Amino acid sequence: MISELTKSVEYLKGIGPKRAECYEKMGIKTVYDLLNHFPRNYIDYTDPVPIGKAPVNEPCIVKGRVVKKFPEARIREGLSVYKAIFTDDVTDLVIVIYNSEYLFKQLEPDKEYYLCGRITGKRVRKEMNSPIVLSADTEEKIQPVYRLTEGLSQSMLRQTIRNALTVFNRNIYEPLPKSVMQENSFCSLDYAMENIHFPKDMHACELAKHRLVFDELLVLQLGMLLMKGRSRDRSGCVLKKVDMSEYYNSLPFKLTDGQLGAIDDCINDMQRDFPMNRLVQGDVGSGKTAVAAGAAYFVYKNGCQTALMAPTEILAAQHYDTLKGFLEPLGVKVALLTGSMTAKQKKSVKEGLESGEYSVAVGTHALVQQSTKFSDLALVITDEQHRFGVEQRAVLASKGNNPHKLVMSATPIPRTLALMIYGDLDISILKELPKGRQPIETYAVTGKLRERAFNYVRQHLDEGRQGYIVCPMIEENDRELQDVKTYAKKLSEGDFKGYNIGLLHGRMNGAQKEQIMQDFKEHKIDLLVSTTVVEVGVDVPNATVMVIENADRFGLSQLHQLRGRVGRGQYKSSCILITDNVNEESVKRLKILSKTTDGFKISEEDLKLRGPGDFFGSRQHGLPALKIADMSQDMDVLRDAQNAAKKIIAADPLLEHKENSYLRELVDKLFEKKFIRQLGKCD
Ligand code: ADP
Ligand code: MG
Predict the structure, then answer these.
(1) Atom 9 of ligand 1, nearest CA residue
(2) Does ligand 1 lie within 6 Å of residue 339's CB atom?
(3) CA 343 – CA 184 distance, rounded (Å)
(4) Would you tell me how many other CB atoms lie within 10 Å of the CB of residue 306?
(5) Residue 47 phi, psi (nearest 5)
(6) Ligand 1 touching residue 281 (CB < 6 A)
(7) Are the C-beta atoms of residues 516 and 504 closer than 8 Å to each other?
């Protein structure tokens, strides 16, 4: 990068160490960072409305002049009100300013201004409280509004960014290859920079934004493809074709086409001389475990080992049971390894893995993070992919003899997003559920119907079924934990007196959780009161009813995941969503769940309604934060960027060509060189 742009913001006029600190709080260190601090939105002063026609209580722009200023009125200690009469020569308006004498003083009688604010009051006496004031002779009729932090003001930021643009204009560069520029008829980067900050008109602003969103998504996608490419140059464990019929014949059911296809994809991948990097995506209940077992069987027949990692101990234990059920009759030895096992148990399992006695190891992260050695590890499977980030995938790549990798995700993600998040992976999708599944009936009700909901649950329990009551929490802090404990106690003494109630929450240790899950599986527990730890993959076919409290606090996809805990057996199942938040949007959202059971559709809706936050929630995917692109809004650009990235990488797999040098720098900057370095380590 041109060195003048990488200088500290202190290099700019008007910024000393103090202010630089404020900028740093927003993640802005260099002139370049500042240029990439894009406006949150804009105030467009080009089309003021007549005061008489301005909408009430909505933001609007009016133009006029100050005709009279009243003296300061001190309402009480610390509260002064300044008023002025403002007119567009047809209608008058009272400007009301609280406490800011400075702002008030700026208003000069008879001078023309734009005001931006909300008009309140009756027709005869319109008021505008604390408007944003702009002198009418200003040339920049569209004003950027920036995200701020304490110690900075909009006008300061505007001025500083102006100065940064001057530096940029001395150092204009163009990161995009000519072909990409032409194909997409993009505006130049300098035009984009100027017009994203100080748009000449809204059209110019759109052009600029389009270009910059593209740049950002392109760089992100290039980074993902680069990772994929990196893992490709190193050879993995090349496996041979084997007879799989024994596996297929031994299963208690016929695999779906999707399952067969996914297993085939894996088998093909693992016969090549670079590691498999595959994602199997399938809705809850689509049967991903049977795919994993198939892949593990293929590896076993090749005389090698498979490790399967799950995000929780419960899941690990469950997968262990399932894999054992599928594979042990075929002579495959399966081991369980989790953090909560005793040192002695762990030691014995580890010895068995190192000696090759076990062909499959199922466990939590501890499995690969600790000093576990394998005699011949050829495949690493991670379940419930959304809990693992891109970074963790990169770490995994360094384990063993560069094994094949299979990840399984139950979070249906819109395809475009999946390509972005999992751009480093090939994808197999399980489209259909196994035949004969009955859809889970879902109802959204308010707390007033809680009694009836509980009644309904009791009916199920009385018929010999089991149920869940889920109290989702955003964070499991002590207070909320107390809540769920109290809640469970209340239920066991009240509505569910006489039933066996179990409690499951995130603060329990692995052994405790497992015990509870085991008891639930064995039907020692009728009703399981749980936080969202039960969310992922737990399989108890006799459970047929679920009540979710505070349902509105969660994303649709997450609720869909949760309800996937029921409806896993032959019985008709139901899910009741309780919410006391009856605003229109929340009701509309929950209704979607009653209408459809298609996880992909639900995730598309979620994306539309809530934005990609849920998919990128707490940066679970480990993707770098984006500055301007919004995946839910910019899908088309995302597609274009993906296509362009593919072409660029096809012609220059490591981004080494001179014309791509800026792009390469931007990739390194966006990913903070993290992944690339990590991958480098395992060479
Ligand atoms: P998920 O994709 O949610 O991980 P699982 O692998 O847990 O789904 O499978 C859900 C249930 O469906 C399990 O009880 C499993 O035995 C069963 N199952 C898997 N594949 C099939 C199939 N092809 N036909 C019938 N049942 C199946
Ligand atoms: Mg599963």
Answers:
(1) 287
(2) no
(3) 60
(4) 30
(5) -125, 70
(6) no
(7) yes
The pLDDT score that the predictor gives to residue 373 is 85
Choices 1.10.3720.10, 3.40.50.300, 3.10.560.10, 3.30.565.10: CATH for 245-430: 3.40.50.300
Among residues 220, 8, 194, 164, which one has the least CA distance to residue 666? Answer: 220
Predicted local confidence at residue 397, as pLDDT: 57
pLDDT of the residue at 611: 59
Residue 323: nearest ligand to its CA? 1
Is the domain spanning 47-140 CATH 3.40.50.2300? The answer is no
Spatial contact of 98 and 79, defined as CB atoms under 8 Å apart: yes
Probe target for ligand 1 pocket from 248, 250, 253, with the most ligand atoms within 8 Å of CB: 253
**Residue ranges in the chain whose pLDDT is less than 50:** 474, 616-621, 675-683
Distance 389 CA to ligand 2 centre (A): 18
Is 0.70 topped by the overall pTM? no
Distances (CA, A) of 180 to 185, 211, 423: 8, 11, 20
Q: Tell me, what's the pLDDT at 424?
A: 67
Does residue 383's CB lie within 6 angstroms of at least one atom of ligand 1? no
Cα separation, 600 vs 583, whole angstroms? 25
Nearest to 558 by CA among 374, 412, 380: 412
Taking the domains of the chain in order of start, what are their residue ranges?
47-140, 174-233+637-683, 245-430, 441-596
Please answer whether residues 154 and 55 qualify as being in contact, where contact means their C-beta atoms are separated by less than 8 angstroms. no
Model pLDDT, residue 185: 93
Architecture of domain 441-596: 3-Layer(aba) Sandwich (3.40)
DSSP secondary-structure letter at 389? -
Tokens of 172: 């204009």
